[in-house]
Prior knowledge:
By secondary structure, the protein is mostly helical. The chain has helices spanning 4-27, 40-45, 59-66, 68-91. α1 (4-27) packs antiparallel against α3. The longest helix is centred in the N-terminal third of the chain and has 24 residues, at 4-27. It starts with a helix and ends in a 9-residue tail after the last helix.
Amino acid sequence: FHVETIRLISHIALLFVFVQGALITEYSGLDTIPDKEATEIFRIFAFNHTCNWIDHNPARMIAAIFIPFFTVPMSGYIILTHLRLARSVKKGQVPEWLLQ
């Protein structure tokens, strides 16, 4: 088992969240989703960010259901990486300032 596997799973889950958001936003045909050029992000930056795919219902609601599949593994990855680093500091394999 390698701790980076958890991070990979987490990023795949995030990719799934954005893909399902893009599919729902682009193909739902709902009138509640504003035109791409009418968003605040487009007004500020002159292009749309990927968050625009999950900013509007029903994609927002489904993204809220699936986002724990990203946050829980990523939190576990961060905790386990910290513990691995603390163990390496204790063994003298890496300098202590990396842990701070």
